[in-house]
Design a protein that fits this description.
The protein is about 0% helix and about 55% strand. By secondary structure, it is mostly beta strands. The chain has three domains: about 40 residues, SH3 type barrels, CATH 2.30.30; about 60 residues, OB fold (Dihydrolipoamide Acetyltransferase, E2P) (Beta Barrel); about 60 residues, Beta Barrel (OB fold (Dihydrolipoamide Acetyltransferase, E2P)), CATH 2.40.50.140. Strand 13 and strand 14 form a beta hairpin.
């Protein structure tokens, strides 16, 4: 929806009909462009403009001085976005698919959504110490996308791991080297 000089999405809402007075709707709104979350109350009959957005799959091609380059998987058109426009960039490897949310009328990229979990190859990590697994200790590991993730001591170079992109946490080992 278009409101307060921005495009917002409704995260939560509650319709309230008090015993006295008019009904209203309490909402929690998220700005599509910058992710800011605000609370707002709309009175009964208050109008907001609807905005049509489309979710389009794009494949990550490469990164250079201009930013990140993506290709629409349906039309093969290329789009480049600045580095700060893609939250979770450090978990995207070349060839991975993400969703770009586009304004349907202007074809302007509004925001991006990466998968909640991705599988990445461990490219560098120190070997774990034998017998030190009972403490639940972790060690830093660099993955193929360039991110550093803390993993259990039994993870080695060449292992493929699943990473939670929301928190940047290790989830599980997919395959061993």
């Amino acid at each position: 929806m278009s409101w307060n000089n921005g495009i917002w999405t409704i995260i939560e809402f509650q319709h309230v009909k008090p015993g006295k007075g008019g009904a209203f709707v309490r909402t929690k709104l998220k700005n599509v462009a910058n992710g800011k979350v605000v609370d707002n109350t709309f009175r009964a009959g208050e109008k907001v403009d609807q905005v049509r957005v489309e979710r389009r799959g794009h494949q990550f091609l490469y990164q250079d001085d201009l930013g990140l380059h993506f290709m629409n998987t349906d039309t093969y058109e290329q789009v480049n976005l600045p580095l700060d426009a893609v939250a979770g960039r450090e978990y995207i490897k070349e060839g991975a698919t993400i969703d770009i949310i586009m304004h349907a009328e202007t074809d302007q990229a509004l925001t991006t959504e990466i998968p909640l979990a991705v599988e990445l190859l461990v490219t560098q990590c120190d070997p774990g110490l034998k017998g030190d697994t009972a403490t639940g200790a972790t060690k830093p590991a660099t993955v193929e996308s360039g991110a550093t993730i803390y993993v259990p001591l039994f993870i080695n170079e060449g292992d493929v791991i699943k990473v939670n992109t929301d928190k940047g946490d290790y989830v599980t080992r997919i395959s061993a080297a």
